[in-house]
Amino acid sequence: MALRAWRRCQLPVLLALCALPGWLQETLQITPLCTSERHYKHLGRCCNKCEPGKYMSAKCTTTSESVCLPCGPDEYLDTWNEEEKCLLHKVCDTGKALVAVEPGNRTAPRRCACTAGYHWSEDCHCCRRNAECGPGFGAQHPVQLNKDTVCKPCLAGYFSNTSSSTEKCKPWTNCTILGETEAHHGTNKSDVVCSSSLSSTEPPNEPQTYLPSLIILFLFISVALVAAIIFGVYYRKKGKALTANLWHWVNEACGRLSGNKEN
Ligand SMILES: *[C@@H]1O[C@H](CO)[C@@H](O)[C@H](O)[C@H]1NC(C)=O
Ligand SMILES: *[C@@H]1O[C@H](CO)[C@@H](O)[C@H](O)[C@H]1NC(C)=O
Ligand SMILES: *[C@@H]1O[C@H](CO)[C@@H](O)[C@H](O)[C@H]1NC(C)=O
Ligand SMILES: *[C@@H]1O[C@H](CO)[C@@H](O)[C@H](O)[C@H]1NC(C)=O
Fold first, then answer.
1. Which of 187, 188, 192, 185 is nearest to 153 (CA)?
2. Where are the transmembrane segments (predicted)?
3. In the CATH scheme, what is the code of domain 35-115?
């Protein structure tokens, strides 16, 4: 059985092999199978479908091929087809916040999308306004056309003090770069506040450099004051005897010191 079938096939195959290779390819693909997307069976034959951009104005007959005609303006067909008419492009209604993102042509449909700031909602089959991210949150970038906003909490070092459907969290101001100092820390909802006045630069340094010298000065003055008072009181009591006593005491001390050295 198989052998006989093979023999029956052999003749046309050999003939085809002798003919043009292009013709061979077509014959093998089209005529015996007719399963290709680009062909259809009609009146017991395998005929060509119409290519994208054209519709079928007449099917094939036993003697003629299909008749295909181009789609009109504002019409399209995007497949190999047997359609009697082309499809009409849809309208992107600006009143419904729609805009054409692909204009479409004879072979491809027009594609509509929601305008910037809106996204397509399957619930209402309409465009909805994109959600806003409140303070402390920022919109994830890049903002995708036709997609609702994705809000992310601001990370440490970033803030957002507005409600916006497009703005990202902004980085805190770097006071160091501005040659200023941080007067107020930043939060996720507020920026760092810088201060340019030098007095606010000092607080961390002041206690270290000024305080000890102030204490020393205070102690010195106190000691001097106490000494002056004691001296004054003593002098008034003992009068000029003090001066003599002091001289005597000093001489004695010096003599003792030199005596110690000699020993
Ligand atoms: C038709 O539009 C599609 C998609 O926009 C594009 O890929 C194709 O090249 C266009 N065809 C013509 C003939 O302009
Ligand atoms: C912002 O910071 C506050 C205080 O640290 C915190 O409670 C809050 O959850 C933060 N908000 C966000 C969106 O991260
Ligand atoms: C500020 O900028 C300087 C210099 O670029 C950098 O060294 C420092 O870490 C920054 N400070 C903050 C708080 O980002
Ligand atoms: C948000 O922060 C910026 C930068 O610090 C500031 O200029 C702006 O006034 C703030 N806006 C609001 C609404 O607080």
1. 188
2. 210-235
3. 2.10.50.10
